[in-house]
Design brief:
The complex is a heterodimer of chains A (117) and B (502).
Chain A: H1 2-20, H2 25-46, H3 72-102
Chain B: H1 8-21, H2 27-55, E1 58-61, E2 72-75, H3 77-100, H4 103-106, H5 110-126, H6 130-149, H7 154-185, H8 190-196, H9 203-221, H10 229-233, H11 239-263, H12 269-291, H13 296-317, H14 320-351, H15 362-365, H16 367-381, H17 389-401, H18 405-431, H19 451-473, H20 475-490, H21 493-500
Helix pairs in contact in B: 1-2, 1-5, 2-3, 3-5, 3-11, 3-14, 3-19, 5-6, 6-7, 6-11, 7-9, 8-21, 9-11, 11-13, 11-14, 12-13, 12-18, 13-14, 13-18, 14-16, 14-17, 14-19, 14-20, 16-18, 16-19, 17-18, 19-20
The chains are: A mainly alpha (117), B mainly alpha (502).
């Protein structure tokens, strides 16, 4: 399972970065979404995957014994997902607005700010 | 609980940004309210600074969860100093915003977002938890996206797309580094990580996570191969926004680098060599970039990059003298860079352009104002006894002690190039006769403003200039403070003991 998830993480990173480097704005947004998911999956895998061992302390004991699923990576991912949703929503609005004003979705055309003024 | 005072700067900004949202369309009220709020924040920051200065590092555990498990806020001397500097810069910029940012922009919640930005900055400085640092970084960048694109001009949107893409990418790299680090040590508290990272067997992975942090923070703080978003975007928003970005946003990246590379990856040989090389390249490329620019805002932007190199290089030397230089430079740089962009806004209001070729005759028409602008410009070069001079002594001394002659050369080169470019700027903008140009008619010039409005324009610049003068002439106090921070950073046991209550 870890190997499969690791490969998927790699694919998501690679495709995300590739899409970000393309010239179209829509592909930039897609790249952002893919990269965000790749990172979330990476944190999930690095938090060690444990099946069927919830981190709940037995009423008879005081501390957790043995192997248990770490709840922290899931909390981290939840936070990261919410943040990346916000950023993606902003990105879509920003790109739409930019397209309306500049009448192009080619990122290579966005070079007027580098001119001398 | 008296040590709770260190989270007051966060509470103040959060409270006022929410209250400002309720007065969305009442721009005049927002202006007054924001300035008052920033004044309160300044008073609070001074209280926090004095409290930490007298009582040492303060720790607040949120929700009373004990240190390695819950999120902690740590007010050490570095954090308290940066909170104070943020409050000073925020106060000046909020006054400047009331007059220089046009009404159409203010109507879209400018001040509310501005307070959220300051909240994020204060949070990033005060947190002791690395994932919480990521969250504060996100608050900073989301607020900065709004500020950079508010108004929606063509240039701004273009700059915003570049700024957004690169900063988002940096955040993702930061999050990746965080994931790798968590996988290695199983904790998120920075003090706890610092203890546990020494026991990790797989040193290669530790090094990889360190380099990932370097790339993530490197994009944010604009170091050598990663800075190209900065000259493409920082000059597009109004000067007040540029000022707060230039003064604080890149410096928060530097702060994160200082924190992570002293506390977690302190004194690693490979990393220090890497950082030093990058610092030298940053100084050279930033300096060379500044020479060829004609727009004064762009010149100042390349100076930001150039001078980031000074701080990163000092961090790489990793001695107490070098760190004291870095901290002193950071204190000087935040105030001076904010002020430079306010000055560029003031020049724009006087002449309706920021292009050096079209400017001129400022000294003949506004001699007193020119004198006021000369002080920050000379401090930037580091003419003794102004503020830029003192940290450079520490940095040069440290580079000679460590026998890093390349860095020594880069420091001299960076200072010389700053001198040359400022001399060029001075002769073009202030001494040269005003060239005959067809100037826009509909523009409201500085001369047409009422006396009160003129005062609002000049007061923030004068205030920051006064702070710069204090840093220069009261260098003894700042040097003492920097040395104290430097020794706290190099001997990180103090920080760890305070957080983990050992």
């Amino acid at each position: 399972m870890e190997i499969l998830l690791a490969i998927i993480t790699g694919v998501l990173y690679a495709s995300g970065i590739y899409m970000i480097m393309r010239r179209s704005m829509v592909k930039l947004i897609l790249g952002i979404i893919l990269l965000g998911n790749g990172v979330n999956l990476l944190i999930f895998v690095l938090g060690r995957i444990t099946k069927g061992k919830p981190p709940i302390i037995d009423s008879a004991e005081k501390v957790l014994e043995g192997v248990y699923a770490d709840p922290i990576p899931q909390a981290l991912i939840l936070t990261a997902i919410v943040i990346s949703f916000g950023l993606q929503a902003f990105a879509i609005i920003l790109m739409k607005r930019t397209f309306k004003v500049l009448k192009t979705d080619d990122l290579d055309q966005l070079n007027t700010t580098d001119e001398d003024s | 609980m008296t040590n709770d005072i260190i989270i007051l700067p966060l509470v103040v900004h959060l409270f006022f940004s929410i209250v400002l949202m309720f007065f969305w369309n009442k721009v005049d009220f927002q202006k007054i309210f924001s300035v008052v709020a920033n004044f309160i924040a300044l008073v609070v920051a001074i209280c926090v600074f004095v409290f930490v200065y007298n009582n040492g590092t303060q720790v607040v555990q949120s929700g009373n969860w004990e240190a390695p498990f819950g999120i902690v806020f740590v007010g050490d001397m570095l954090a308290a100093t940066l909170v104070l500097l943020t409050a000073i810069a925020g106060f000046a910029v909020s006054i400047f915003s009331t007059i220089s940012v046009i009404r159409a922009r203010l109507r879209f919640g400018y001040f509310s977002v501005f307070h959220f930005l300051l909240l994020g900055l204060n949070g990033a400085f005060l947190t002791g938890d690395i994932f919480n640092l990521y969250v504060w970084f996100e608050i900073i960048i989301i607020s900065s996206f709004v500020l950079i694109s508010i108004g929606g001009e063509k240039n701004q949107l273009e700059g915003a797309v570049k700024y957004f893409a690169l900063n988002f990418f940096a955040s993702m790299i930061f999050l990746t580094a965080l994931g790798v680090l968590y996988g290695l040590v199983g904790t998120l508290n920075m003090a706890d990580i610092s203890l546990k990272i020494a026991e990790v067997q797989n040193r290669n992975l530790v090094e990889i996570s360190a380099v990932l942090f370097l790339v993530g923070f490197g994009i944010k703080s604009a170091i050598f191969p990663l800075y190209f978003w900065l000259p493409a975007s920082y000059h597009t928003p109004p000067s007040a926004v540029s000022a707060i970005f230039a003064g604080l946003l890149t410096k928060v990246g530097v702060y994160a680098l200082i924190r992570v590379f002293t506390l977690i990856y302190g004194g690693d040989g490979f990393l220090n060599t890497l950082l030093l090389t990058l610092a030298i390249m940053t100084i050279f490329s930033g300096g060379v970039g500044a020479i060829i620019q004609n727009n004064i805002k762009k010149v100042f932007m390349y100076f930001i990059i150039c001078h980031i190199g000074f701080m990163i290089g000092g961090l790489a030397l990793f001695t107490e003298v070098a760190m004291a230089g870095v901290i002193f430079y950071l204190i000087h740089d935040i105030i001076i860079k904010t002020n430079l962009f306010l000055i560029s806004g003031l020049i724009y209001r006087i002449k309706a352009t920021n292009n050096m070729k079209k400017l001129g005759g400022l000294y003949a028409n506004y001699p007193k104002l020119s004198l006021l602008m000369a002080i920050p410009l000379f401090s930037l070069i580091g003419i003794p006894p102004l503020s830029g001079y003192w940290p450079k002594i520490s940095l040069i001394l440290a580079s000679l002690n460590a026998e890093q002659y390349w860095f020594f050369g880069a420091l001299i080169f960076g200072s010389l190039i700053t001198l040359i470019v400022i001399a060029k700027l001075w002769s073009e903008v202030f001494w040269k006769d005003q060239p005959k140009l067809s100037l826009p008619k509909k523009f409201i010039y500085f001369d047409q403003l009422r006396l009160g409005q003129k005062f609002t324009f000049i007061f923030p610049v004068a205030f920051l200039t006064f702070v710069t003068l204090y840093i220069g002439f009261g260098a003894e106090h700042i040097q003492q403070l920097s040395q104290r921070i430097a020794s706290e950073l190099i001997n990180n046991e103090l920080y760890i003991d305070a957080v983990l209550k050992r």
